[in-house]
């Protein structure tokens, strides 16, 4: 059935098209992503319709809209700035006339959703960010698929090239597994905005940077990465979760799957109901971020050496940019090695991760050490193993404290491990251990014998 279109008016007089799906008492507003939430819903794209119809069918009203210069909204100029997109969202919310509501953003829509949650925390009950990134420039350079198709697009692109561009984009999104679906998607995208408007949109999004807004988010927040999305986006989404206080982070879906991400649907539904977001029982396996279980774990601590001196040398802004880039790379390396970066607070410029294997932890530490050296930000790294207790998104216990102190004892660019870790990994890690003797570690009753990780001869 064709959705009933309403129009909201922004403060600067732009007409914004919107629709409301469902009739429940709870309200979910979906911040416009790129080609218009309403426009894509009208086009009956399966991946757009099923998700919002399912959420509406679970007892809520879902508000979808097209931003200015997109779809059925007024095409007046090419202002796609963060301020303009926030104004569009504010106008939609005011027009619908809701009190408190849940707010959902995906990819490009996450910036407006975050800005609204910071500006109106009294209105937003819960915030969900899917495939988020803090800086548009990172998204356009770090995600190969986006970088490639962006090079193809230009304001003067002729119609025949535009058709190839949209078909290529749709093929990438679908994994080239559904030609008919890709053709429908390409047509919906092509009719949402002109080629010149698309070029202006991409240029505006490249300058988006919500890094400073993320720590100001005070509403309950779920940050999700679906494995059906582009893999290179994962570190950027993890960074968003890290920067939002007390945010929950979740991975869902099966990479390469041709079926909808039901785990994503269930997680979002549970979170906005107030249930545990991690309950994604169903055909999709539970979150891919491994659970931080209480019990025995191998704990890796790492921290940037002499960060104060580096800040003075590089300047605060330059240092923070390098630190953020390194942090994302470190967390990705840890995940690839089979570990779980802990999303709770860690003092200083540090990262803590837990592993089930000493071999994995040492392999991750070696890779992280190399990344720090390559970035010109050498690291102190320390590893210990013992019992931990999970508390929310963090882990605690005496073993955690020992691991932290082992890291503090390491020289810049050095990996130190406890005797416990050396014993666990002596024959499996593929490295040598240099005895550094016993150390009296601050706050630890018994001296700890430490070993430096070295390449095998």
CATH class of the largest domain: Alpha Beta
The largest sheet is: 8 strands, mixed
Tell me which CATH architecture of the largest domain applies here.
3-Layer(aba) Sandwich
CATH superfamily of the largest domain: Alpha/Beta hydrolase fold, catalytic domain
Strand content: 15-25%
User: Which spans have pLDDT < 50 for at least 5 consecutive residues?
Assistant: 276-294
Any idea how many domains? 2
Helix content: 40-55%
The count of DSSP E runs of length 2 or more, i.e. the number of strands, is 16
Cα-based radius of gyration, to the nearest Å: 24 Å
CATH topology of the largest domain: Rossmann fold
| Global morphology | elongated
Average predicted local confidence, pLDDT = 83
SS-based class = alpha/beta
The N- and C-terminal alpha carbons lie at a distance of: 70 Å
Count of separate DSSP helical elements: 16
Strand order of the largest sheet: 1-2-4-3-5-6-7-8
């Amino acid at each position: 059935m064709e959705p009933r279109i309403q129009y909201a008016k922004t403060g600067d007089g732009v007409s914004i098209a919107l629709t409301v799906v469902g009739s429940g008492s709870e309200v979910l507003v979906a911040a416009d992503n790129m080609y218009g939430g309403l426009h894509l819903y009208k086009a009956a794209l399966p991946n757009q319709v099923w998700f919002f119809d399912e959420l509406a069918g679970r007892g809520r009203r879902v508000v979808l809209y097209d931003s200015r210069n997109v779809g059925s909204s007024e095409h007046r100029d090419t202002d796609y700035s963060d301020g303009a997109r926030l104004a569009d969202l504010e106008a939609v919310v005011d027009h619908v006339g809701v009190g408190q509501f849940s707010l959902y953003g995906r990819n490009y829509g996450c910036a407006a959703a975050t800005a609204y949650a910071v500006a109106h925390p009294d209105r937003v009950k819960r915030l969900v960010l899917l495939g988020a990134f803090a800086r548009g420039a990172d998204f356009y350079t770090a995600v190969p698929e986006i970088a490639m198709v962006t090079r193809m697009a230009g304001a003067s692109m002729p119609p025949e090239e535009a058709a190839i561009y949209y078909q290529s984009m749709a093929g990438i999104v679908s994994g080239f597994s559904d030609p008919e679906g890709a053709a429908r998607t390409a047509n919906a995208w092509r009719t949402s905005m002109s080629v010149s408007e698309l070029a202006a949109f991409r240029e505006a999004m490249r300058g988006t940077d919500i890094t400073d807004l993320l720590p100001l988010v005070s509403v309950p927040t779920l940050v999700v990465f679906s494995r059906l999305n582009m893999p290179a986006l994962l570190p950027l989404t993890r960074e968003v979760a890290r920067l939002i206080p007390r945010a929950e982070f979740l991975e869902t879906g099966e990479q390469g799957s041709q079926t909808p991400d039901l785990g994503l649907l269930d997680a979002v539904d549970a979170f906005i109901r107030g249930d545990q977001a991690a309950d994604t029982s169903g055909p999709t396996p539970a979150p891919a971020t491994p659970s931080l279980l209480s019990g025995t774990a191998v704990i890796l601590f790492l921290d940037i050496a002499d960060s104060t001196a580096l800040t003075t040398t590089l300047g605060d802004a330059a240092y923070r940019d390098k630190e953020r880039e390194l942090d994302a790379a470190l967390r990705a390396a840890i995940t690839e090695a089979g570990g779980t970066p802990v999303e709770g607070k860690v003092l200083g410029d540090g990262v803590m991760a837990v592993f089930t294997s000493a071999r994995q932890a040492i392999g991750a530490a070696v890779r992280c050490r190399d990344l720090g050296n390559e970035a010109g930000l050498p690291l102190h790294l320390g590893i210990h193993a013992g019992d931990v207790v999970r508390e929310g998104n963090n882990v605690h216990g005496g073993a955690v404290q020992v691991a932290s102190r082992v890291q503090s004892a390491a020289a810049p660019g050095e990996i130190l491990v406890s005797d416990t870790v050396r014993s666990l990994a002596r024959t499996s890690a593929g490295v040598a251990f240099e005895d550094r003797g016993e150390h009296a570690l601050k706050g630890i009753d018994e001296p700890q014998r430490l070993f430096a990780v070295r390449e095998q001869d």
